[in-house]
Amino acid sequence: MSFVSVIARKDFITVMTDGRVSFAKQLILKEDYKKFKKISKKQFIAFTGNQEYCERIVSLFDYKNAQYNLKEISYQIHEIINQAPYVNFHVNLAIGGLNEDNEFVVYHVQNTLKQSIKELKTKKNKISYGFLNSEYVEKNINTEQKLVEYLRNTGFNTPNKCLKAQKLLNDYIASKDSSVNRNTFTLKITR
Q: For residue range 67-106, what is the model confidence (pLDDT) as tens digits?
């Protein structure tokens, strides 16, 4: 399934993905696959789940110089997922970056029974974070607690400090979930 972590503050956002693509956890197809795409200078879409299905969705949004309306994109993706015939695989997408109000925001869209859109907004000097991960990780690992533990050690007032904590978290998840590896790809977006 893979692992993606996103950290947002009022002045930056960081994204880290692992590089493994597997089929039914047993068959490893790729070890160095970047699971995000920049769609504008200050915006991205990250994903986990079925690679082909996620790529099809992400390919609908070409890179452009002007900013997208992130909330609108999230609802478009939500609609695409809802209109698709029942599929027996999981997809998670994070759509984020600077919005039209010049605030960092991330929308989480997935094809679960709830099929809801969750919004992650930055607040003053606080840190916000979110994860795209497998059901195994969701049920067995307190990712929030682990990330907070790592952020206490690395700090969280710069993108590089956040990425260090995200790397520690990714490596920890990789040691517990065979669908995640230690090869990572990072994205930093600053004002």
A: 999 999 999 999 888 777 666 677 899 999 999 999 999 9
Structural tokens at position 149:
């533990």
Other CB atoms closer than 10 Å to residue 78's CB: what's the count?
A: 19
Q: Is 125 exposed, middle or buried (0-12, 13-18, 19+ CB in 10 A)?
A: exposed
Neighbours of 90 (CB within 10 A): 16
pLDDT digits (tens, 9 = 90+) for 107-143: 999 876 556 788 888 877 789 999 999 888 989 999 9
Domains and CATH numbers, the chain: 4-190 (3.60.20.10)
Q: Which 3 state secondary structure label does DSSP give 99?
A: coil
Helices 70-83/51-58 angle, 10° precision: 130
The label of the residue with tokens 């969750």 reads 118
